[in-house]
């Protein structure tokens, strides 16, 4: 599966958001990764529908919307209408996960589930066949710029093994601390979509940083 880079707009310059969106359009990135945080599921607050609509206005690539919020079912339709091309919900936030995944699919977009670092991959056994993507968090969600958790390589490989028969076309995404030093090993373990925030936008040349991640 082709390696896909998804720059996290949470790390973009919000005073120059259109500029950064257009930079991603012109780059080798495949998606825009959009982190939504509510201050309850994670100890941070990001942005909501108006910002997503603003990104969608200029984006020429799909919006990969990652909901780090409690009770995401309340807002699935709103995020689709704001511009989401895929919605990721957290295993830990969804007591009726199958119902949530089906509700996303009924909106006509990709449905994904994320797992926090302490959540065992085995917990996904009963949902793995129903999702388009699994997002493995390689840091504890809530803040950018955190240190990559080394056990992530093992978790990615476990997801790949779990999906081998039930869902061989599953996309495995990794989010948190991804940079040129670990991306090749993550791809080798089975990841095909890599979220990059600080390693792109904190570099002197974000456009080239995306290219480096694509080919590292």
TrEMBL record:
Chemical reaction(s) catalysed: D-ribulose 5-phosphate = D-xylulose 5-phosphate
Gene this protein is translated from: rpe
Keywords: Carbohydrate metabolism, Cobalt, Isomerase, Manganese, Metal-binding, Zinc
Lineage: Bacteria, Pseudomonadati, Bacteroidota, Sphingobacteriia, Sphingobacteriales
Name recorded for this polypeptide: Ribulose-phosphate 3-epimerase
Active-site residues per Swiss-Prot or TrEMBL entry: 35 (proton acceptor), 175 (proton donor)
Pfam families: Ribul_P_3_epim (PF00834)
Source species: Mucilaginibacter conchicola
Biological processes annotated in GO: pentose catabolic process; pentose-phosphate shunt
Record carries keyword Transferase: no
């Amino acid at each position: 599966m082709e390696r896909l880079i998804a720059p996290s707009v949470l790390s973009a310059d919000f005073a120059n958001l259109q500029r950064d969106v257009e930079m991603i359009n012109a780059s080798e990135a495949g998606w825009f990764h959009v982190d939504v945080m509510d201050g309850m599921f994670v100890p941070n607050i990001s942005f909501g529908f108006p910002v997503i609509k603003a990104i969608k206005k200029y984006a020429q690539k799909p919006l990969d919307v990652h909901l780090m919020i409690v009770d995401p079912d309340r807002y699935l339709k709103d995020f689709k209408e704001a511009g989401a091309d895929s919605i990721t919900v957290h295993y830990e936030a969804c007591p009726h996960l199958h119902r949530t995944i089906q509700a996303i699919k009924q909106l006509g977009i990709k449905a994904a589930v994320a797992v926090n670092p302490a959540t065992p991959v085995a917990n996904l056994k009963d949902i793995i066949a129903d999702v388009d993507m699994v997002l493995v968090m390689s840091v504890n969600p809530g803040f950018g710029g955190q240190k990559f958790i080394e056990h992530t390589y093992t978790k990615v490989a476990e997801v790949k093994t779990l999906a081998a028969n039930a869902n061989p076309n599953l996309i495995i995404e990794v989010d948190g601390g991804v940079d040129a030093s670990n991306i090749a090993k993550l791809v080798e373990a089975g990841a095909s979509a890599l979220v990059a925030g600080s390693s792109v936008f904190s570099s002197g040349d974000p456009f080239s940083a995306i290219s480096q991640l694509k080919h590292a």
